């Protein structure tokens, strides 16, 4: 009634924005610098222009990363399910290694203590309009996934649909909070492709966060050089630089 966006829709916006920010981060981290020599490397200018000059994009990417990480490691329904899931590919040694790595991820003491809580998931989707909001969000994700079919590049389409499904799976886990059957058992059920999408999304987001951290010094040096070369407008460029990296001080 006040015209403000409800918390659930704000969460959805942050998640989509964070995923959208992660994609150009990967492009900037592994960019085709010279097609004739097939030379690949970091594109510092692109990283600054698409990501680091927009602190809100970086914050939303961190939010999405924490959201997915918390869905895997902090919610009992997901942790129990993923621990007991069958990782059977026919390669016994690799299957045992995968199961061991999943358990290390789920029960890592560093993750349990270091990761802040992005929000109180128990308070979301629990009000009178909760079921309707869930349906709206699920519909939006189906629409986004359908739009991916229009992407011409097969590789881009594959990664896009995989990451969108991973994000939808994380939301599915959060939707299950407080949702139990009459015997008190968790009703969360995940399909094999949902688990694969979720783990792949976490991998991509963690790589994006690391790229932002690793490339930040190079971007700072680039901006300092630009400030030196255009000393006629130092105040304006300094404000841009301060804004771009204000989130790192918090």
UniProtKB/TrEMBL annotation:
Pfam families: ERO1 (PF04137)
Main location: endoplasmic reticulum
Membrane topology listed for this record: Peripheral membrane protein
InterPro entries tied to this protein: Ero1 (IPR007266), ERO1-like_sf (IPR037192)
Cofactor: FAD
Keywords: Disulfide bond, Electron transport, Endoplasmic reticulum, FAD, Flavoprotein, Glycoprotein, Membrane, Oxidoreductase, Redox-active center, Signal, Transport
Cellular compartment(s): Endoplasmic reticulum membrane
Family per similarity comment: Belongs to the EROs family.
PANTHER family: ENDOPLASMIC RETICULUM OXIDOREDUCTIN-1 (PTHR12613:SF8), ERO1-RELATED (PTHR12613)
Protein name in UniProt: Uncharacterized protein
Organism: Brassica napus (Rape)
